Amino acid sequence: MRTLLKLVMIVTLAACHGDQPGKSESQSNTSTQTYFTLDNNGEKIRWKGQKLLPGTRIDNLSNGEPGLVGRDFVVSSTALPIQELTANYRITHIAGDNYRLSAKATQDMATEMARLKTIPELTLVELQIDYSPLTELPQY
Q: What residue ranges in the chain does DSSP mark as E strands?
């Protein structure tokens, strides 16, 4: 019961963090595991390890689904700052004011998401998460 209460407290604390990646620790009898959390367009995601690299397994705390981090962001902008983004991304127009930013190199997606959210021209920033069944997920 005490372990369950600790887990509920950790999940609650993780849900209270802002847009910056958060850190929470879960203690078991054998070892300590560190989890980080992030708000991905209203969905709380959690992962083990300090960096959120493409291919990292995540748990969506909002819907309970596991998934894998992709290499892309979807952003919305009426005045996309192309000059600022082309050094790190291939830009693909999706529809309307929506664009896909495909990373040219492997990078910490949590840090990059925080950076993208500081660009005032971007009204929405969402990290690609693949929620296909784990046996069918691609390798990144």
A: 22-27, 32-40, 43-48, 57-60, 66-76, 89-95, 98-103, 124-130
* The pair of three-digit structure tokens given for residue 129, joined into one six-digit string: 């998460």
Query: Could you please report the per-residue DSSP string of 64-79?
Result: --EEEEEEEEEEE-SS
Q: Each residue of 59-96: pLDDT tens digit?
A: 999 999 999 999 999 999 999 999 999 999 999 999 99
Separation CA 34–CA 5 (nearest Å): 18
Question: Tokens in use for 127?
Answer: 């990290």
Rounded to two decimals, the pTM is: 0.72
**Identity of the amino acid at 77:** S
* 87-129: pLDDT as tens digits: 999 999 999 999 999 998 889 999 999 999 999 999 999 999 9
User: Pairing mode, if any, of strands 57-60 and 32-40?
Assistant: unpaired
Terminal CA-CA length for the chain: 39
Cβ distance 72 to 100 under 8 Å?
yes
Sorted by sequence, the CB contacts under 8 Å of residue 121 that are 6+ apart come out as: 77, 78, 79, 80, 81
